[in-house]
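COURSE: Structural Biology Practicum
ASSIGNMENT: Worksheet 4, Part C
STUDENT ID: 0417
INSTRUCTIONS: Below are two proteins. For each, the amino acid sequence is given first, followed by its structure token string. Answer the questions at the end about the second protein only.

PROTEIN I
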Amino acid sequence: MRFKCALHFRVWIGLGVFFWGFQSSSFAARLATVGEDGASLYETPNQGSALVQKLLPKTELVASNLPTHGFHKVRTTAGVIGWVQADQLILQPPPTVEEVTAAGGVSRDEQDKRKEEEKKEKKIFEKPRYMRQHVRLEAMGGMNLFAASGIVTGFDNITEGYSYGADLAFFLSSRLALCVRIENIIKSIALTDSATGRNFQFDLTSLPVTVGLELTLIQGTRASVRLSVLGGSAMQVQVKSTNRSDFSSANPTSVISTNGITGLGILGLNWFFSKYVSAFFEGGYRYLTTTSLNSPIGSGSQILNSNFIINLSGIYLGAGVALSI
């Protein structure tokens, strides 16, 4: 029974030091005993270094396989680490593979096998570097916060509009990409004319098409942070006002459409599920405006100012999915 306990103690000590950090071809360290004259535990492998403590004879330690400058690196059962002269130690042979396995440990072959399996699992989720990408396609939806002030007198409240679209990025280098983006912005508001009490349905739409550059600020294996700056044309910027209280007019809806200019600055975060697919979140500011317009004909224009600029500038927040190849 005593021999069995001693064997298990030796095996578990061997297992502990294997993960401690020594390097060896088979096992990292071995069990050692202080000689009959005792030993001195030094801070470094030098007798001139600081003395950590005195070790009593027959004190059991864990020692490195090979000495350094005549000293073995050791660790006491209390966890104190230091250096002891080689001639003051009695080294025991390291535990065999069979002893380690019998005591519930893991053999070297099993460890190598587990490491290979972990590497394979890691590769499944590992995202390749940007220089290995060529094209990325994104589909997104988002919210646009703007007031569209100046179109209707007295209405300057910031409310939400919605957008959806796609972005195609062509990578010029590991961190720089050329982006082409197309979106559709929609906003609908119910208004009441305070002077007449009539109700109006007020719809704003636009199709901004932009081109710009994207710079990857941070690139990791699972996530990246990017900054995009784009500019272009705001196509089909349209205001449609419908007089919901006019049941007699043949033309209760007034529509005016034009083109404008737009710009978009975005800070985005991509989270990769695999090397091809990622989800992203982005936020920034959109500038979108037109030249001055005259109010259209129709009873829907009764709530509109005679001259106005369509301004859909404001904060943008969005999210979507991306496919990279």
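PROTEIN II
(use this one for the questions)
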Amino acid sequence: MRTAALRTLVVALCFTSVPSCATPAPSETPKAPVSLGPIETDPMAAVHATEKRMRDAGLEEDFIEELNRRYIRGKKNWIESATKILEPNVLGFLYSGDYFSHDTPPGRRAILKYLRDHQLSFKEAEREYHVNAYAIASLLWVETKLGKDLGRHPVPWVFQALVLGAHPNLCSRVLEALPAKFQAATRKKISTIEMARDKTIERCEAKAVWAIEELKAIQKLWKEGVLNPFRIQGSFAGAFGIPQFIPSSYLTHAISKYRRRADLHLHSDAILSVGHFLKNSGWTNQSETAQLQALYAYNRSKDYGLVISRIANALLGSGN
């Protein structure tokens, strides 16, 4: 049934965009489509293949077992849950984020109040890392509205789902959602549905490779026993806390003045950790280029850095 559905999908992909199905000009060499691989009838095939992949990558048996116990075993809807995580992660290339919508008069007022409410933590961050307090506060506004929008996805499950997504049984589900998502994208970053299909299959694999490294970071936290990663919820992309760090960034950059491991749900730790991240990424208050490069390391979007810089500079210039 799934194989037949995918054959139907291939036909549907062709008819969603007339130009994309046009015969290439004689001078063009058609690119071979990216292969998805066979879809298996056993719904657990993806789980077994993912378990082997995680073991081969160095994840330990007890950690893999804990993942399966919490998120797959006995869960009737785990495939649907994984698909809901995969779609926005894999198909995100279809859209251009509108980061400038975060810059509003109410937002600027909220940032100024936040700076006053947490001025001691901001002074500490400026003293230790020489990062502008207005930039840190503006970043936290864009990320989570200063801690109001944290996400409700179990972070380990996000990354396990992304590894599962490399298997044809799961990636095919993302492909089924592609035609509607492609048609709905008003600011397309890719021109044809065939190109989008190939890109989707490539991203199913690329996201799995990335997710395995994040699972290694989660495993390290779990083994330490200081912070229980299985109690952490975050965004569909696996970022958590007020500053939305992914697990590997947490291990490298999260910092606390009083705790062995930072609690990114505390404003003081979030503020210091963002300052630490930006400093480690090359931030200097004397160079706008260095600042934008540091912000790009935080979120790989030029508009993300530009809007944070715009808000911070406007507030700094206002004298508040």
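ANSWER KEY EXCERPT:
Q1: The two ends are 63 Å apart (CA to CA).
Q2: The domain at 99-152+238-318 is CATH 1.10.530 (Lysozyme).
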